[in-house]
Specification:
Layout lengths: L2 H13 L12 H51 L8 E3 L5 E3 H7 L53 E4 L23 E5 L4 E2 L14 E6 L4 E5 L25 H4 L3
Parallel strand pairs: 3-5
Antiparallel strand pairs: 1-2, 3-4, 4-6, 6-7
Length: 256
């Protein structure tokens, strides 16, 4: 076939609508099929992405607990191995929770704080490390509190163990008396400054079925909610998370 015949044949096919495959555009049906496939893939990936996001928040929460634990460690080292009290009350009636005590003692001096452009009283002392990124509750402070405030107990995301961190004035506890620091809780996910083994209302389950926990030796971990025992009178307080001072289990946790 001559070259002129080939050119004429190509021109004829273009007139009849026969375009080369590489020059064709998507039809509407093909476009809709592609969009449907993308939507299906996105729907399949969303749960995995959500799980990855929540896993990242859980890790960030645990890291924050560890950072706060470093501040309590410094307090303990500076005060003859005495645990930081969950609260200190003076004769004037002024009471300050453990977060404010650490702030006043400069143990949070190098810790990042949330910005307070208006210098508002109830938005001072907001330590970033004291927050869980999975927490979404309205904090209890006027007019609105977006972050943890060391001065306001009800804004805390990490509660300290009441059994190992008693109120002052009172009988302080030395960490040298604790038998099982690696399995005794110091902090756990909660919505107040402290928690006792028979007050489950202060806990906050933010990471699936597990609570993030910081142990008294400074390492972080998590505890399945089903393994924690709440309620009065139970001999199961002996599970090594609480260091209960009740007579039935005291010998397991406290040295003479």
């Amino acid at each position: 076939m001559k070259q002129s015949d080939l050119l004429c044949d190509a021109a004829g096919r273009r007139k009849r609508g026969h375009m080369p495959r590489e020059a064709r555009l998507f039809t509407l049906i093909e476009l809709l099929v592609v969009i449907a496939i993308i939507a299906i893939l996105a729907a399949m990936l969303m749960p995995a992405l959500q799980q990855a996001r929540e896993a990242g928040k859980e890790i960030s929460c645990k890291n924050n607990m560890v950072h706060v634990g470093k501040a309590t460690e410094m307090y303990c080292s500076d005060n003859r191995e005495i645990f930081v009290p969950r609260k200190a009350t003076w004769a004037t009636g002024d009471g300050r929770a453990w977060g404010r005590l650490l702030w006043d003692g400069k143990y949070f001096a190098s810790y990042p704080v949330w910005a307070n452009p208006g210098n508002r009283t109830y938005q001072q002392w907001q330590i970033r490390a004291m927050e869980c990124p999975s927490e979404n509750r309205q904090r209890l402070a006027p007019p609105n509190m977006n972050h943890v405030n060391v001065q306001l107990n009800g804004t805390y995301d990490f509660a300290i163990n009441m059994n190992t961190h008693p109120v002052l004035p009172g009988t302080p506890i030395s960490r040298t008396k604790l038998r099982l620091p690696s399995t005794t809780m110091q902090f756990m996910d909660a919505q107040d400054a402290w928690i006792q083994y028979n007050l489950p209302g202060n806990t906050k389950l933010r990471h699936g079925s597990k609570y993030n926990v910081l142990y008294e030796d400074g390492h972080g971990g998590n505890v399945d909610a089903a393994h924690l025992v709440f309620g009065g009178g139970s001999t199961a307080y002996g599970v090594p998370y609480w260091a209960s001072t009740s007579s039935s289990v005291k010998a397991r946790f406290w040295k003479d």
